[in-house]
Amino acid sequence: MKSQSVRLHVPALACLAFSCLLVARPAEGGYFSDHSVQSFYEDFNQFRGDGFIQLPGGTQLDSDLWRVSGLSDAEGLFGGAYLSGDWARGAATGAVTTGGVYAFQVGAELNKNWAIGFQSTASDLTPGALTLRVVNSTAETVRSVDIGFQVLFRNNAGRSTALAIDYGFDDLAYLNAFDEGWVSKADPENASEWLSNTFHQTVTGFSLLPSETFYLRWSMDDFGGIGSRDEIAIDDVHLNFSAVSSSVPTPSAVGSLLLVIGSLGWRRNPFGVSRGC
């Protein structure tokens, strides 16, 4: 796992050069197509927190691809229509307190950058999860995936928040995508400033057959502290699939990362806890 913590004053870098951008929007989820290496990428720059639906407008997200669970309004399902309430809290450029899903403006004023954001409360997202699903529509068996994304956070409240990243093939049993955990400080610091951590991992040792589905899930929950919760955002998600296993070292668990957000960087979670939802 590679992790780099920086103060965010400019938008995140665009995705690395990938061979193909996922563009199809079938009823069963996103497809990646063609031959040995294909990619999915979402930068959320058009999203404005207006909810999830199968045929989204520019400010919404595709509910065939994305699902949010753990909101007090209802439990999200792939393919549903969720256009109000906790699902669609709109765009925010400053601190928020109402629980739900937002589009957070996380870049500098002259270099705007948007990300999908979450405000947890006692009744929302504690626990909760964002899940992405894509389908192998190629004629080849996928054996490797490079996973990359950014976690952004504003440590303006007194609770630590844990984030675990898992993958699976049936939306029931999930495996850890990274093998180390992290925990944030509970005390607020740099409350008005968004900070960013970039994560990358190559997962091998699996076989995703044609027409089978790959799921990637970010699970969140309280970890410690008291009071309100920090704002959290996810940005620049890329999945780079390959029919050939990568030669990079495979982590001991082929997988999960527990992240807990900290304002001055990250420290190892001494308990090794990874919580799903």
Could you describe the 3D structure shown?
The chain has one domain. A hairpin with a 5-residue loop joins strand 12 (159-168) and strand 13. Strands 1, 3, 7, 8, 9, 11, 15 and 17 form an 8-stranded mixed β-sheet that branches. Strands 2, 6, 10, 12, 13, 16 and 18 form a 7-stranded mixed β-sheet that branches. A two-stranded parallel ribbon has the order 4-5. It contains no helices and 19 strands. 0% of the residues lie in helices and 43% in strands. With 277 residues, the chain is an all-beta fold. It has strands spanning 2-7, 30-32, 37-42, 52-53, 61-62, 66-69, 91-92, 100-105, 114-119, 128-136, 142-154, 159-168, 174-176, 182-183, 195-208, 213-225, 231-242, 257-260, 267-268.
